[in-house]
Amino acid sequence: MIARKSFLIILTQGTSAALGILGIMLVSKLWGSSAPSLMGVIWFGMAFVGTFSFIMNLGFDATHVKKMSEGKDQGSCIGTFIAIKLLLVSIMIMCVVGGIAIWKYVLQKDFYDATKESVIYLFLGYYVFFGLAQIPIMTFNSRKEIAKSQFSAIMDTLTRVPLMILVAMAGVTGAFISVGGTDMVINILPTYDWPSSLSNIQIFLSNNAIGAFATTYMLGALIMFITGMIMLRKYPIKKPDMDYAKLYLKFAAPLMIPLIFTLLIANVDKVMLGFFWTSIEVGYYSSVQRFSTLILLFASSIAIVLFPTISSVYSNKKLSKKKKIHEIVKVTKQSERYSSMIIVPIIFFLFTFSQLIIDIFLNSSFRPAEMSLRILVFYTLIYTFLTPYRYLVLGMDKPKILAKTIVISGITNILLNIVLIPSSSPLSNFGIIGASGAACAALVSGIILYLGLRFYSGRMTRKHFNGKNVGKHIIAGIIMSISMMYISSLFDSPRWYHLVIFGFISILLYVSILWAIKEFKKKDFDFFMDTINPLEIFNYVRSEMKRK
């Protein structure tokens, strides 16, 4: 059931991410060579507010999943969680407003948008609704009601993507950006002639292109929040309970510092790129980062199901300590093996065809980000490997250990960003500056986090995690990559349909290699076929959506 629920998450989030990339692809085609600069402004605005987004969580999301999965009173848990979320969101709003004042009046920096910092406030709205949407989503996850949580989450993309394409089709008029210290005004004609009845809308969108683009994110998060709350209304919701609030705070407290570092790492690189460079460098980095984010769906799909599973096993008083450890280690190893088996060929495929992927899904003006993409995909690989160990540590009630490793990794990331992002980077002779410097910082900090969590997981369970299977997958991935480099060299100018053909050949090569070294067996084939069985998935979704 873990596998099927994880696959459902991959299916829905994969669809969501694919639609998101499709939207970015169409926008980049419509905005042409101006896309990196314009998108950079948008991604900077998102990252600026995202730097404060840890305030909305502070470990209480994971705490809610933990306490609900332990069998605490649902009504009291949900009511307390709602009160905590409202308080945290209010604090975040005040902090963002203060951050804007510091950026403008202390650091003497500006926001490069025709409507000034309005784009920041729009993304503030996005994060507010996104944070509140976690109330129903985390509740569903704690009950392992994956169909409900994923239905809520995908509404964000289904709302946002069509709207962002509409905004891009309207063209751009008078958007101010800075390139190399020079202010520029971007004007892009609409792709199609709009009907006269819609001309006023087209003109408005064109005159406020960046702000309108940011609004699509806010509307997507709003619909996600509304959808989740509609389904949550069937659940018992009681008044906030002070005893439960103390219980939540006790578990969340050790998670606060690591969570701060986790979300800072996710956003501070783009803020630093905007500070040391310009919006175009932010655009390069953030756009290719979307591809690595797509791959992280595999890690997040495992985490959503793995955490409450380990937590429920560890808190089961009917099981002996030896039996608990056995079950936790077993599910951790299975998660690591199957996630590695799936993710490794994707990583090496992206590495091999990085330039072709950039040209097809973005445009050639994004080619300076090729090195960043190649580095980021390996960061994603490391993050996928560490995810089972992260939730083993957390599920076994050791948040302080998780905090220690994340803080060390986070400090490393921030320091490396400061050193490697500026043009004076000590690795500048190797092209490691700006976006590629930020990618290197992410990779090194990810490796540190992986090694730390793996070490502590072994110490806590007194079991040896040798990673033998992972090593076989990486060898198969390397052989596949080298083979595909040779095959692709036979084509002078590969097109998008060649990429599809290369993909099928890569899968056949990878699976054949695993089969030859006896790493992929019939039971694995049967496992995957059962996991993706459409009828079983439909029956599971139908039964859950009917459940109250």
Note down, in words, how this protein is organized:
A hairpin with a 2-residue loop joins strand 1 and strand 2 (182-188). Helix content is 77%, strand content 3%. The mean pLDDT is 85. With 548 residues, it is mainly alpha-helical. It folds into two domains: 16-240, no CATH class; 272-521, no CATH class. It starts with a helix and ends with a helix. The radius of gyration is 23 Å and the shape is globular. A two-stranded antiparallel sheet has the order 1-2.
What portion of residues is helical? over 70%
Low-confidence stretches: none
Biggest sheet strand order reads 1-2
| Share in β-strands | under 5%
Quick take:
With 548 residues, the chain is an all-alpha fold. Helix content is 77%, strand content 3%. It has a two-stranded antiparallel sheet.
Topology:
Elements: H1 2-31, H2 35-50, H3 60-69, H4 74-106, H5 118-142, H6 146-169, E1 172-179, E2 182-188, H7 199-207, H8 209-232, H9 242-276, H10 279-314, H11 321-352, H12 354-361, H13 370-395, H14 399-420, H15 434-461, H16 468-489, H17 496-516, H18 522-531, H19 534-546
Helix pairs in contact: 1-2, 1-6, 1-10, 2-5, 2-8, 2-9, 2-10, 3-4, 3-5, 3-9, 4-5, 4-9, 5-6, 5-8, 6-8, 9-10, 9-14, 9-15, 10-11, 10-13, 10-15, 11-13, 11-16, 13-15, 14-15, 16-17
